[in-house]
Amino acid sequence: MADAPLTYSDLDDHLGILLDASRWYVGFSGGIDSTVLLHLLSSWCRHNADAPPLCAIHVNHGLHPAADEWQAHCEWVCRLLQVPLVCHAAEVLRSDRGLEDAARAARYELFSGQLQMGEVLFLGHHADDQVETFFLRLMRGAGVRGLAAMPATRALGSGRLVRPLLQLPRSRLEDYATAHELHCIEDPSNCDTSLDRNFLRRDVLPLLAERWPGYRQTVNRASGHIGAAAQLLARAVPAPPTLYSVMGDPGVALAQLDFDSPREVALALRHWLERAGLPAPDQAALAEFQRQLGVATARSRPLLQCSAYALQRYRDALYLLPGCGAEDWPEPMSMQPGEILQLPVPGGRFWLAPAQADGLRLAPGERLQVAWRSGGERCRPLGRAGSAGLKKLLQERDVPPWWRDRVPLLYLDGELLAVGDLWLCESSRWAAAPAPGESLWQPHWERNITTAFD
Q1: Which of 63, 80, 132, 202 is deepest in the core (most CB within 10 A)?
Q2: Cα dist from 113 to 57, 156, 286, 403, whole Å
Q3: Calculated CA dihedral for residues 249, 250, 256, 259, nearest 10 degrees
Q4: What are 282-327's pLDDT values in tens digits?
């Protein structure tokens, strides 16, 4: 018996419980899966007045000569559907796991950065994608969490990722696209069977379908059983509590990890990363990281480098590093009170805000310089008996090494006035209270650090 035609009302159970979201996004590549999902969601929103605002997100990976044409197509579709579109250009960093994995990591990093608290991102994955993911992870030797394949919903950045089509076969989406005469992009790389997913889709799975026509349901049921086992395992070996460095980097205390049981350490770290929506590290890389931690001295800083993030030991904890910027820092930057300065990645934003007391005396429009450590800088923090080198001060404050050369230093006429938002220095411009008609200012620094663990 043929399945009933797919309609927007088939999403009622998925969407009705998400009406309190502040915004709905849909990942929109222009392919058939995301086009059908966008069409369904826009139809649902038109028929449900209490639906949150809907917006599409397109990621231009820049890996295909037609990438800009695909973006233009997505813009055209969104204009027809009257759905706002946000476009992002991805920086795809090739990894040893292949270009497809690197593109996925870049895409999810942009999705994660887009989502704010209370917002939801919908993706068009379906039952065939679930099966393909299961076999791909099986051939990579994934554990129970990996073989549980894709969850229907999970945390992502500050928001939530939802896959409302996960129980539907690709054929029902194709029928919907035909019935509604939807124009979709066909990526030529989908025919390239040198890519693992395409090889599975075109050569392997049709053979399974000949022998076991109901293999999709069987594999998805098995994934569900494995997912239940993964949840039990997560409760048995829970994610350790999150601590924070003095700069705000999220981390895990080494004392929370039982290094006499390497498997438990690996599971605990995987569960901790998963809680923030980060992918699990490669098993071999994680095993080597654990080995280095086991032989490291108190001053050593073993590093786990993954495509989407990095973990490093500092003193008695492991910390998630901020995003990497250029090795060579730029020339000093200029700013004036009230301006917001965008610092080089991962510096974040730096500005001077009005203060009632204990601030810097600055005239309107007076321009200051922001620079970075080059060696030999000294500061006498307010209340300290004498001055000291910045290197010593940063070490005493437990500022992690990866931040020490990224702290913005505020100068006026060659005099060091402040070290980020860590210290005001004794200077000719510091005052405990403003004189009549005078304004005081204090530095504020919003560091570019993940809030996914908050």
Answers
A1: 132
A2: 12, 9, 25, 21
A3: -70
A4: 888 888 998 888 888 878 899 998 877 889 999 999 999 987 655 5
